[in-house]
Amino acid sequence: MRISANPLRGQQFPAGLLLAAAAIGLLFANLPTHDAIAAVLDAHIAIPGTALDLSVHEWVADGLLAIFFLVVAIELRYELTHGELNSLHKAVQPAIAAGGGVLVPILIYLLIAGPSSPSGTLTAVGWPIPTATDIAFALGVLAMFGKGLPAAVRVFLLALAILDDIIGIVFIAVLFAHDVNWLNFALAVVAVTVFAVLSRVLAKSGSAMLAVLMGVIGVIAWGLMAVSGIHATIAGVLLGLFMSPAPAEKTRHGLEPTVNGAILPVFAFVAAFVVIPHVAPSELSPAFWAILIALPVGKIIGITLFGWLSLQLRPRGTAAALVLPDVLAAGVLGGIGFTVSLLLANLAFAGDSAVRDEAILGVLGGSLIALALSGAFVSMRARHYRMLAKAA
């Protein structure tokens, strides 16, 4: 395996940086620094002559994170066309496991914080939050503790996390659209189309001016999406999905260090900047407990159970690519929600800051539980395979 000289292109360092940024955000929110930082995050920055008037917090979540989703979409496109999901045969088993990793956390969440909970339907809207898997964190743990694991485990986890990303993107696009301005949305789609056409011309010409023009059109597409009522990060998704492969790969390679080293840590800091409520555990919102439990427990049960079922679908007489303990390892890793779960928490409870903050704490707590469990379990599986290799 080729090792990149830049740690920001690896898996371990960005995952550690992300965790550190979230920890610092949570710490600063609960120190006397809170009011000064909160004032900065709540300050609005408007673009003259446009309808764009967002707080610094919104510029981070809607603007910077759109660049992250651009990179994610480029990776998704590659995996769907040339990678681990480019055929039904490759996709069916992780797709079934990913389905379980979405359905079971939703069920657990609704059992705890659904309409029958003390807060009724007020917290039920948070059901998408525990469905996400943070691919950067999961692969970081795998790289850190999984030396000796078969390549099939990483491939399965990668495909699983990619499918989770697709589901998360669909949730963001469909569930959190509000007062949609269809004209602005149509204009955003036109801008994405122009961007896609120019990217194909760029693939042949290599013109630097054309690349700059594409950047301008991409920003316009984002702005139109932002004022359309559809979440602005969807612009990044569309731009990445429809970009020509060669320019897309250059863009991903160029943006990767910035996304890993700046954009995601800044988002983690801002998203985790919440005050820990000084209340008894029984007074915490059901959303907190639902996420705290549904992320690690729901993912483990859902991915392991449905993953095991998917292994039974292999052709008769052929060996399974994974054994059940390896599927369990993927399930434990899947409970690290983090980035997309934090975004979903902000969107689901945008109108209730108290519940939103507790939901974010639930995401952080549930992800930390999954992080600790996955580190221990992946280490055990890796040690098992290293012992087998020595005995061979």
Task: Please provide a written account of the structure.
The protein has 392 residues and is an all-alpha fold. It has one domain: Na+/H+ antiporter like domain (Na+/H+ antiporter like fold). It contains 15 helices and two strands. Strands 1-2 form a two-stranded antiparallel sheet. A hairpin with a 6-residue loop joins strand 1 and strand 2. Helix 12 runs antiparallel to helix 13. The protein is globular and about 65 Å long. The model has no long low-confidence stretch (mean pLDDT 88). Pfam families: Na_H_antiport_1. Belongs to the NhaA Na(+)/H(+) (TC 2.A.33) antiporter family. InterPro entries: Na/H_antiporter_dom_sf (IPR023171), NhaA (IPR004670). Its main location: membrane.
Determine the structural class based on helices, strands and strand pairing: mainly alpha
Sheet-strand content, in percent, reads under 5%
Residues in helices, as a percent range: over 70%
Number of strands: 2
The CATH superfamily is identified as Na+/H+ antiporter like domain
- Order of neighbouring strands in the sheet with most strands: 1-2
**Which word captures the global form?**
globular
CATH class: Mainly Alpha
Number of helices: 15
Q: Average the pLDDT over all residues and give the rounded result.
A: 88
Low-confidence stretches: none
Query: Strand-and-helix sequence, N→C?
Result: HHEEHHHHHHHHHHHHH
Q: What is the CA-atom radius of gyration, in angstroms?
A: 21 Å
State the domain count. 1
CATH topology: Na+/H+ antiporter like fold
The CA-CA distance between the termini, in Å, is 22 Å
Could you describe the largest sheet, including whether it forms a barrel?
2 strands, antiparallel
CATH architecture: Up-down Bundle
